[in-house]
Design goal:
Layout lengths: L1 H7 L15 H22 L4 H23 L6 H32 L5 H28 L3 H24 L1
Length: 171
């Protein structure tokens, strides 16, 4: 439990991901949760068969992106587990909040609140900005990038892991 608390502090930019050492089991559980939460969210907004494929594509793109970051930095591949675990824990937290936002939107629709779409879009944009900040923070800590480069790479990571699979599934 202390390890998960330390990782969740990354979501508030309070802990240093370079000091966190995940066990293999912890990282495995983070990946399982990432997949399950992704399946839930996609199950709520996508086709039954396309949703899981998109989640698997996102996972592949996420791992590929982290490996590419390490390759271009000539960093030890042993950092791979530490970097992806830090990103995935925070992404899982954001995904839980996204699931709660979906539940809130459903409730607002059933209550016939006309502004439900504005509320949902605003919450989604807020979560996306927070997510970019977290990923940028993690990349900055691991690779000593400038804030601008960290946020740019976080945006690229976001586009690669969410944009490309979504684009492919829409084509």
């Amino acid at each position: 439990m202390p390890l998960i608390r330390s990782y969740l502090q990354l979501c508030w930019f309070k802990s240093n991901p370079t000091e966190l050492m995940p066990t293999r089991q912890f990282s495995r559980n983070v990946i399982i949760f990432y997949l399950l939460s992704g399946f839930i969210v996609e199950g709520l907004i996508a086709d039954f068969f396309e949703g899981p494929i998109e989640v698997l594509m996102r996972t592949f793109m996420a791992f590929s992106s982290v490996a590419t970051f390490l390759l271009f930095q000539e960093k030890n591949i042993l950092l791979f587990q530490r970097v992806f675990t830090a990103i995935f824990v925070c992404e899982n937290f954001i995904m839980v909040l996204a699931i709660l936002c979906e539940a809130l939107d459903f409730w607002l629709v059933t209550m016939h609140i006309e502004e439900h779409d504005v509320i949902g879009i605003s919450l989604g944009i807020g979560l996306a900005i927070w997510y970019l900040g977290i990923v940028g923070y993690i990349l900055r800590r691991f690779f000593a990038y400038s804030i601008k480069k960290s946020l740019t790479l976080a945006f690229i990571y976001f586009v690669l892991t969410y944009g490309i699979p979504m684009f492919i599934m829409d084509v």
